[in-house]
């Protein structure tokens, strides 16, 4: 149904009313009116003291930029004009005594959150995100956008598309940086695992945020994003000096299963105070190895099995085993199974190592 006048074209649909004035189009959405009492008291709903058809009430609203919607009381046909509400309104149930059309879509069904009348949007419950608060963050950048003042390490579940599982990880935020911890070794976990474990990820269950985990090769590409990113290896000690060492890898690209998760990076930097110690010195363009998937460049030896851990092991000359066993293990590992890191003395690792982490550095937002 519709009609035309010289200045205005109005069409009334079942759910929407469109006004095409000569200058602009205004769309009105059928919406549910709630908490009329509060709105009237707060003067964000005002009677124009005239009975009107809803269409005419909407025409009145369409030419007024401060008007957010129009409604007509069913039993009296009184027209009401709606403006911004600053207070909170109880929208748990609608008022059926009004026909209400809003310039904004009807309030959304907030799945894990509450309706915020002032911003006309869902306010999500931690750590949900999205218009309807119905999903987990895709990555730590998105987490940071929704929870900008959550500093420190937050263990949360991400849902990085197109992975079909939730990925437990830690978003680490300081006043000027944001990163995704994809690997943490605090010594309580045995990292001598199968490739399948390394693809799917693993953690200590239930997962206190400060224990060991590995997010999984399947999640890594989407956490890294489509363009080459920076990764950082951070090593923490329980001594005053050093407290921690940081090593940055720029331009990191990780291949998928077809390359056995081949790692490529552009450059390496030991950050302030850290001794030179490139854990991936010989690992550029190297596939990932585990005891059951030997992809190192030594055809005579299985170095992942000897190291008792997974890593991008290059060859027999391996100097780095960040997922190896801590020295306080009651059962000493065989072969070369202890944790080692180039440039860091065995004494420091033996006596003062607290944890090793691998971070993806996220754009800071
Ligand atoms: C119209 O309905 C409202 C409830 O929606 C009621 O409070 C009011 O008294 C009614 N007015 C008339 C004139 O019937
Ligand atoms: C992890 O946190 C718990 C609780 O705060 C603490 O008791 C425990 O010592 C921590 N473990 C490590 C390895 O830091
Ligand atoms: C993080 O997730 C958001 C939302 O899905 C997406 O727009 C953004 O591109 C992602 N960032 C990276 C670096 O992948
Ligand atoms: C790693 O290999 C890539 C591809 O050959 C190359 O572009 C890059 O410069 C290498 N990185 C380092 C640190 O040598
Ligand atoms: C790692 O596990 C494999 C398979 O069980 C075993 O052969 C190897 O000795 C282990 N490595 C270490 C260092 O314990
Ligand atoms: C072994 O690796 C170190 C650095 O990690 C390198 O300086 C050295 O030349 C390598 N030795 C051999 C025999 O490849
Ligand atoms: C070894 O040290 C780590 C880190 O301090 C701790 O989490 C772990 O429980 C210790 N393991 C043993 C067997 O003492």
Task: Please explain how this structure is put together.
It is built from 7 helices and 20 strands. The radius of gyration is 30 Å and the shape is elongated. The strands form 3 sheets. Strands 11, 12, 13, 14, 15, 16, 17, 18, 19 and 20 form a 10-stranded antiparallel beta sheet that branches. Strands 1-2-3-4-8-6-7-5 form an 8-stranded antiparallel beta sheet. A hairpin with a 4-residue loop joins strand 9 and strand 10. It has 365 residues and is α+β, with helices and mostly antiparallel strands. The protein has 2 domains: 101 residues, no CATH class; 215 residues, Gamma Fibrinogen, chain A, domain 1 (Gamma Fibrinogen, Chain A, domain 1, Alpha-Beta Complex). The chain binds 2-acetamido-2-deoxy-beta-D-glucopyranose (NAG) (7 copies). The site of one 2-acetamido-2-deoxy-beta-D-glucopyranose has 3 residues, from loops. The site of one 2-acetamido-2-deoxy-beta-D-glucopyranose (NAG) has 5 residues, from loops. This is Fibrinogen C-terminal domain-containing protein. One of its GO terms (cellular component) is extracellular space. It holds the Pfam family Fibrinogen_C. Keywords: Signal.
Helix coverage percent of residues?
10-25%
CATH architecture of the largest domain: Alpha-Beta Complex
- Mean pLDDT reading: 88
**What structural category arises from helix and sheet content?**
alpha+beta
The 3D shape can be described as elongated
Tally the helices: what do you get? 7
Count of domain modules: 2
- Order of helical and strand elements: EEEEHEHEEEEEHEEEHEEHEEEEHHE
CATH structural fold name of the largest domain: Gamma Fibrinogen, Chain A, domain 1
Number of beta strands: 20
Report how far the terminal alpha carbons are from each other: 48 Å
What binds here, in terms of ligands, is: 2-acetamido-2-deoxy-beta-D-glucopyranose
**Rg, please?**
30 Å
> What is the percentage of strand-forming residues?
25-35%
Protein name: Fibrinogen C-terminal domain-containing protein
Organism: Candidula unifasciata
Pfam family, one: Fibrinogen_C
Keywords: Signal
């Amino acid at each position: 149904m519709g009609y035309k006048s010289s200045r205005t074209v109005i069409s009334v649909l079942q759910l929407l009313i469109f006004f095409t004035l000569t200058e602009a189009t205004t769309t009105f959405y059928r919406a549910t009116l709630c908490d009329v009492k509060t709105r009237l008291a707060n003067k964000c709903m005002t009677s124009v003291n005239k009975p009107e058809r809803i269409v005419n009430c909407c025409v009145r609203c369409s030419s007024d930029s401060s008007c957010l919607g129009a409604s007509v009381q069913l039993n009296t046909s009184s027209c009401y004009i709606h403006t911004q509400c600053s207070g909170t309104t109880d929208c748990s149930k609608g008022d059926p005594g009004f026909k209400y059309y809003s310039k904004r879509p009807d309030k959304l069904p907030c799945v894990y959150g509450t309706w915020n009348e002032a911003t006309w949007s869902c306010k999500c419950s931690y750590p949900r995100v999205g218009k309807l608060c119905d999903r987990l963050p895709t990555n730590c950048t998105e987490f940071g956008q929704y929870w900008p003042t959550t500093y420190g390490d937050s263990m949360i579940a991400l849902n990085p598309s197109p992975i079909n599982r939730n990925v437990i990880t830690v978003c680490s935020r300081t006043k000027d940086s944001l990163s995704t911890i994809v690997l943490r070794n605090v010594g309580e976990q045995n990292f001598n695992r199968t490739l399948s474990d390394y693809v799917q990820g693993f953690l200590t269950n239930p997962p206190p945020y400060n224990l060991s985990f590995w997010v999984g090769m399947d999640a890594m590409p989407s956490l890294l994003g489509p363009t080459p990113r920076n990764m950082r290896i951070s090593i923490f000690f329980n001594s005053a000096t050093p407290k921690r060492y940081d090593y940055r890898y720029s331009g990191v690209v990780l291949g998928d299963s077809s390359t056995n998760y081949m790692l490529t990076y552009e450059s390496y930097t030991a950050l302030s105070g850290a001794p030179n110690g490139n854990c991936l010195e010989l690992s550029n363009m190297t596939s990932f190895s585990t005891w059951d998937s030997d992809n190192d460049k030594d055809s005579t030896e299985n170095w992942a099995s000897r190291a008792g851990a997974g890593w991008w092991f290059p060859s027999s000359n391996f100097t780095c085993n960040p997922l190896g066993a801590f020295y306080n293990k009651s059962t000493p590992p065989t072969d070369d199974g202890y944790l080692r890191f180039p440039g860091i003395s065995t004494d420091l690792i033996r006596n003062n190592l607290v944890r090793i982490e691998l971070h993806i550095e996220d754009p800071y937002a």
